Give the backbone structure.
Amino acid sequence: MKLDITTLEGKSAGSVDLNETIFGLDPRADLLARCVRWQLAKRQAGTHATKGRSDINRTTKKLYKQKGTGNARHGAASAPQFRGGGRAFGPVVRSHAHDLPKKVRALALRHALSSKVKDASLIIIDDVKLSDPKTKGLIERFGKMGLGSALIIGGVEIEANFQRAARNIPNIDVLPVQGINVYDILRREKLVLTKAAVDALEARFK
């Protein structure tokens, strides 16, 4: 599979052969959904908590005598049914993370890349380098390329001027190749890979 390579100025810079086993798969929605769910669950803080009846500092004196009042047999004011009492079955601090096999995660990434190729939403760029860290100029270049919502994947390191210029642009994410993930690929309309990122991905899945 061949795709044209472009530059930040919108000029042609040749073409590249993409590996069919990485970029030519028929995307499976179930794999993508599993991986996205795993990612979002893993990043949840899980710090939500409420006070149960054992956490409430209220009197434990029996409210009234056991028999003869016609009321229920209450033994503490911290019971959930009372105003100011503890909450029954409230959330507790916990981890939301669950396991997903490494092979499934790797396969889901390949399917996410293939989905962008199938939708004609993959752009290959020669490199992401700027002489000045100017956001305004980069916005103009993105406008000519039709990038309103995009994930840009560079090489092992992102050039400093480009990273500074791009970080203030809404709906534009910039990541090094080792940070590529299914959720960020799917949440943006376009996927922009540098030539170095393509080489690194093909070496990773070899």
The first strand starts at residue 2 and ends at 6. Residues 91 and 168 are 36 Å apart (CA to CA). The chain is about 35% helix and 15% strand. The chain has a mean pLDDT of 92.
